[in-house]
């Protein structure tokens, strides 16, 4: 049996460079949780279907269970822990868009990217983006209400 050796890589996570020793087969979610102690990205399905491990890589939402950590070298990774100065977290609470909270970090990361890339998203675009994450507790209307409320706030700020 061959023993896999580890290699040193530098990952830029939440604006900081972190040197970590990883196996080539380590997924990004494993490294974030086990090496860096960033446990906001959850391991749900571990095959890219549920979205509970969503992080932003260069601004795009990516399932961290579906990418090897070595593939994230030379990118900018943002986790839920690094998402600061955004009204999204408060909006999720005030609109009751969470229950158990397991999927919430992934949804928040996805909503953040959606609003950055499509600030005036129509209902069709919102539904398409929401399809990449699964929630078994709340349903999706509350989360759509969050997006609509944040869009309205953004329009007021731009005026």
Unreliable runs, pLDDT <50, ≥5 residues?
A: none
- Tell me the span between the first and last alpha carbons: 64 Å
The computed structural class is alpha+beta
- The fraction of residues in strands falls at 15-25%
Helical content (DSSP H or I, runs of 4+): 25-40%
Largest sheet, strands/sense/barrel:
5 strands, mixed
Tell me the total number of β-strands: 5
Count of DSSP helices? 5
Mean pLDDT: 88
- Text of the CATH class of the largest domain: Alpha Beta
CATH superfamily of the largest domain: Beta-grasp domain
Lay out the secondary structure.
Elements: E1 7-13, E2 16-22, H1 28-35, E3 54-57, E4 60-63, E5 76-78, H2 88-94, H3 104-117, H4 123-130, H5 141-158
Parallel strand pairs: 1-5
Antiparallel strand pairs: 1-2, 3-4, 3-5
